[in-house]
């Protein structure tokens, strides 16, 4: 991937320099760290380029993979327990990739925002980006200013990302800008979920609010990402954690809470197909196709699903 653009407003071409990229218009320089370009508009990001330089480079709020031995085993075990839940039915990021690849006349170009350690297998050109370094991350960039040309991608994936940006509406504007006229977006964002990733957690959307966020897209499909059982499990776990600030207590309580609430997470099987579950969803997903004008809010209201308890 070499067709980068300046992440600032002009989106001018970047020239490859000696260990950096240089904007042809504003002359801003963007360094490469271990071959990965740091393409940030510092005036419009909570991150700074210096965060990625030197031995203390930013690794992400939850991407600590430095543990070894028993600590590594414990973390992997705890994560497996906390992630244990029924497989979600419906549409996911792999479904979106298959949908686009099946309809493309040639290998589509796909952008993954907030890739982390995600990996996809498809007959496509996949560009992995994030604000932290990862195994497949090719570019450090902020979704508020995507360093790519207009009408460049066929599909953009943003899974568990838009709650971590300061201005999700600006990010959707950027997504709309770099998508081809008939391009697609897939996103999944939490609704009833406690704070995660600390200070890098900004926003929650009701399912209807999530639909409005994507008002520049025609809906192909949408649904509940996690159900009421997961919401109740989160609430109980965080209630237990909140009883003490002691580090040792919290480490034990985190695992104990995950084990105790395991049946609640699996109880989401009972809520499949229930309309009332939309009002207590852990999150929502959306898959849609780019349009030229926004859908009016009065039309968005008609897409409400729930029982309004």
Summing up helix and strand content along with how strands pair, one would put the structural category as alpha/beta
Q: How is the biggest beta sheet arranged?
A: 11 strands, mixed
The proportion of residues forming helix, as a percent range, comes to 25-40%
Total domain count: 1
Mean pLDDT level: 90
What characteristic shape results from the CA principal axes? Answer: globular
What is the N-to-C order of secondary-structure elements (H for helix, E for strand)? EEEEHHEEEEHEHEHHHEH
- Counted beta strands: 11
Number of helices: 8
User: CATH superfamily name?
Assistant: Vaccinia Virus protein VP39
Distance between the termini: 50 Å
Unreliable stretches covering 5 or more consecutive residues: none
Spatial order of the strands forming the largest sheet: 1-2-3-4-7-6-5-8-9-11-10
Query: Strand percentage, roughly?
Result: 15-25%
Looking at CATH, which topology would you report? Rossmann fold
Give a written overview of the molecule.
By secondary structure, the protein is an alpha/beta fold. The protein is built from 8 helices and 11 strands. Helix 5 packs antiparallel against helix 6. The chain is globular and about 55 Å long. It has a single domain, classed as Vaccinia Virus protein VP39 (Rossmann fold), CATH 3.40.50.150. It has an 11-stranded mixed β-sheet, with helices on both faces.
